[in-house]
Amino acid sequence: MNVTNSPIPSRHFPKDASPSLSEFKSLCSRNTQSKQYPLASSIQSNIPIYTLPPFSSLTPSQISALQDEWHHILLSGPGVFVTKATLPRPLITQTNTIYTSIIDAERATAKGDHFSSAGNNSRIWNSFSKHALADPASFVAYYSSPWLSAISAAWLGPAYRITAQVNLVCPGGAAQVGHCDYHLGFQTAEATAAYPKVTQIATQLLTLQGAVAHSDMPLASGPTRFLRFSQAFEAGYVVYRMPEFQEFFQQNFVSVPLEMGDGVWFNPALFHAAGENTTSDVERCANLLQVSSAFGRTMESVDAVPLVEKCWGKLVEMFKGRDGVQRQKPW
Ligand SMILES: [Fe+2]
């Protein structure tokens, strides 16, 4: 069989030619146009910032218009946006007491992880489940936020699933290397290369990456660094480890300060990295969210039945409307 004259192009990114660094630089040097996102309150360092009004004050069409902007940002815009005061500070404070008790209980066996060494980093894997089992009331209040739902549905549509991990970085905590995330970002370069081009591109549609700030995060504390528009580079998962692409990330990333309760949301294919905590007194803490499409596979397994059993009473209360929680579906 003669395969040399086939008119069908390879389904893979070519192994013998590096993707164009100059195209990457050009793409990631674009500026975010404020007129393109009129519902944003401001654009800071090319990142649209949204000040959220009370959810119940908005009509479905107003919510949908916000969702249109967010979807556009994630798909073909800068790839990241911030929502201010997404969750109320008292709820974050209550949740932090739960996180602290979980971290203390797990500290005896802590060994650090692939993000940082033990001593300057605490992490709660599957904080979603542990939070629910430890304090159903604050868990239900947290994850029933209509804004979490609206933001997730904007990218994924309905029937998504959430997994979460808490990351606490103490003063002196090191920066991460620029990277892309779940799913393909967690694979080796060789494993990634085995996936067809279109599959690599499509995986970014299966996850929304987010973080809720559980502390104030001044720039010196190292809030997440982002390389704007990089999610739109089709070969991103192939190239993000290459030194020349890493160098461009290091020279051109942006980040914005966050306040407790703010949310930051980004496409998992966007080049990003946690920053260095150069403060002497800020413990930077975030709840990292991966929201997974109904058509995807979640990053962690959540055994939902015990969580439902634990939270059932609170859920019934909410269903009966005793606490006045807004239940309008944002899609
Ligand atoms: Fe990451």
TrEMBL record:
It holds the Pfam family PhyH. This is Phytanoyl-CoA dioxygenase family protein. GO terms for biological process: fatty acid alpha-oxidation. PANTHER family: PHYTANOYL-COA ALPHA-HYDROXYLASE, PHYTANOYL-COA DIOXYGENASE FAMILY PROTEIN (AFU_ORTHOLOGUE AFUA_2G09620). SUPFAM superfamilies: Clavaminate synthase-like. InterPro entries: PhyH, Phytyl_CoA_dOase-like. GO terms for molecular function: phytanoyl-CoA dioxygenase activity.
